[in-house]
């Protein structure tokens, strides 16, 4: 999904956020690039992954636990992502993108946060043979032409079977 879509994740009500031992579900607030009067992006259902570094359930719980003391400073704070220093407020798209860039740099990944959407879409379609409609929904795209024109890239086949985080993501 888009980085901006992460700013739409709220944790204040069961209608927008549910977490169990095996999954975390988000119903993003209205405001995605493709949201309109007759279209709203699908919910996000992320399943538990056996690999801790890829386990969204573990990391969302850790995020909430770690940020609890900052969150208590403001009762009206409902965003999943909040600032980590300075005035306590919702984290902006730019702040979240900075966090992702830092993680990529630390992991030795020389790509922009937005380029991950293209890589995942290409992998899902070209290598895994997933249905294009499923890819459109998971990526929150409305146009096949947009995906083919701007996101699908030529890639080399992986030499070994790899575990993909996208296998643990389901639109609902």
State the separation between the terminal residues, measured CA to CA: 14 Å
Any idea what the shape is?
A: globular
**Strand arrangement, largest sheet?**
1-2-3-4
**How much helicity do the residues have?**
25-40%
The SSE order reads HEEEHHHHHE
Query: Which secondary-structure class do the elements indicate?
Result: alpha+beta
Largest sheet, in brief, is: 4 strands, antiparallel
DSSP strand (E) fraction?
5-15%
Instruction: State the low-pLDDT regions, or none.
Output: none
> Number of helix segments?
6
Radius of gyration: 17 Å
What is the number of strand segments? 4
Task: Average the pLDDT over all residues and give the rounded result.
Answer: 81
Write structural notes for this entry:
This is Putative reverse transcriptase-7. The protein has a four-stranded antiparallel sheet, with helices on one face. It has a domain at 3-107. The protein is 37% helix and 8% strand. With 172 residues, it is of the alpha+beta class. It contains six helices and four strands. It has helices spanning 3-6, 56-71, 93-107, 115-127, 132-139, 144-150, and strands at 17-19, 23-26, 44-47, 169-171.
């Amino acid at each position: 999904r888009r980085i901006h879509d992460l700013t739409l994740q709220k944790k204040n009500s069961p209608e927008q956020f549910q977490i169990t031992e095996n999954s975390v579900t988000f119903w993003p607030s209205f405001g995605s690039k493709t949201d309109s009067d007759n279209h709203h992006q699908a919910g996000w259902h992320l399943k538990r992954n056996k690999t801790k570094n890829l386990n969204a359930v573990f990391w969302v719980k850790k995020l909430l636990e770690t940020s609890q003391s900052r969150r208590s400073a403001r009762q009206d704070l409902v965003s999943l992502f909040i600032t980590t220093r300075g005035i306590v407020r919702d984290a902006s798209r730019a702040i979240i993108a900075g966090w992702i860039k830092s993680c990529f740099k630390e992991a030795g990944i020389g790509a922009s946060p937005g380029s991950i959407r293209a890589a995942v879409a290409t992998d899902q379609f070209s290598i895994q043979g997933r249905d294009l409609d499923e890819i459109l929904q998971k990526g929150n795209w409305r146009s096949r032409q947009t995906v083919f024109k701007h996101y699908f890239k030529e890639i080399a086949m992986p030499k070994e079977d790899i575990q993909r985080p996208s296998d643990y993501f389901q639109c609902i």
